[in-house]
Amino acid sequence: xxxxxxxxxxxxxxxxxxxxxxAQWSAGVGAVGSATPYKGLSTEFIxxxxxxxxxxxxxxRGPSLQYKITGLxxxxxxxxxxxxxxxxxxxxxxxxxxxxxEERDLSFLAGVRYIYPTAFGEFxxxxxxxxxxxxNGQRGALNFERLIASAANRSWAITAxxxxxxxxxxxxxxxxxxxxxxxxxxxxxAYDLDAVWQGGVTVGxxxxxxxxWQLVAQSRWLSLASDIKNSPIVDGSSTIDGFVGLTYQF
Length: 250
Known about the structure:
Elements: H1 6-13, E1 24-35, E2 43-54, E3 58-61, E4 64-68, E5 78-85, E6 108-117, E7 122-130, E8 138-150, E9 156-167, H2 169-176, H3 180-185, E10 196-209, E11 213-223, H4 226-229, E12 238-249
Antiparallel strand pairs: 1-2, 1-12, 2-3, 3-4, 4-5, 5-6, 6-7, 7-8, 8-9, 9-10, 10-11, 11-12
């Protein structure tokens, strides 16, 4: 089973793994869930190992690898190179309603990420392009995350945020379009998409206990763009993704 990777991407980009000092490793186990938008596919769950590392320049969180060019100190703006897994995939043979539709493979994206922390919250932006020769498309996102509640000693905290996501026409067509070849062997008409924008809301939190143990949770609700909602292989107008993880910091 190929899990929709939106939830796994949350694991890679969330700031909830930030440690108290540099050169810190975290490891543990997590449960990931995703409500896929494709027809005939239900909510999927999977248990995965979690690994994360934060050094002075290198940050590795699950499927996300980042290298700081500027902003080596915390709480200052930071420009970074980044490599991530794209948050979309489709194994069409798992759905009886997608006969004739080809598999949409995982893809790797590489580009730049900018983090801008303020007293009000953290603003960030990312723009990446396919480097795995799957679709030659691009994905960008503008994010805002704010601490909304926390313990005085920061043993627990809750965050909330907003996201605006952009998918290029090549990206959107690969994951949500229907090609002429697929239309010829399926019940679906050919369908092409232009570049799309779609918005979402994130909620997360952590609870630290017993010295180096931490319970982490993150979720995202995404309202699908009209062109994606109108795709003949899509059923639904939004998706919900999330994960819960237990980690130990070395």
